[in-house]
Amino acid sequence: MDPFATLGIARAYGIDLRAAERAHRDLSRALHPDKFASAGASERRDALTKAADVNEAWRIVRDPIRRAEALFELAGVEVGETKEPKPDPELLMEVLEKREALAEAKAARDAGKVRALEGEMRAREEMVEAALAAAKAFDASLVGKLGELRFYRRFLDEASNVLESLEDGGEG
Q1: Element (H, E) at 68
Q2: DSSP state of 78
Q3: Which of 2, 70, 76, 81 is the most buried (most CB within 10 A)?
Q4: pLDDT tens, residue by residue, 135-167
Q5: Which of 20, 43, 62 is the last residue of a domain?
């Protein structure tokens, strides 16, 4: 499935998410089961299938990693963590150091330090996303950026969980 075509939006990384959400909402409204209540069984089934495709397309394009994966796959580049090149050792070392700093901040219950680390990694994530948005083509030379994005996203998810835990007074 081409999620961009399904939603009727440009096939690009740097999409207008608000416009994509409007397209999703409009298509969902048009394909709502109530509009097909008096239609034949096959027409209802087709509408339901299209509605499911529209919902899946929206899930893909709103997620930065899944959007990039879709663009690579549409360009004929296989992606997936086992199919992508090994990350740069410098990146691995940097992420490891940040994870250690996050663990220390968690142990010290230092929400300010967690937020600072989160800010640093968000800035890195934004740089990768900008590079993907600027790309003219999603070819194999760009796949490493997807790996970077995965590392940053995992870190940000972990940092968010730590902050949530600290705010709730738990151990996380």
Answers
A1: helix 64-74
A2: -
A3: 70
A4: 999 999 999 999 999 999 999 999 999 999 998
A5: 62
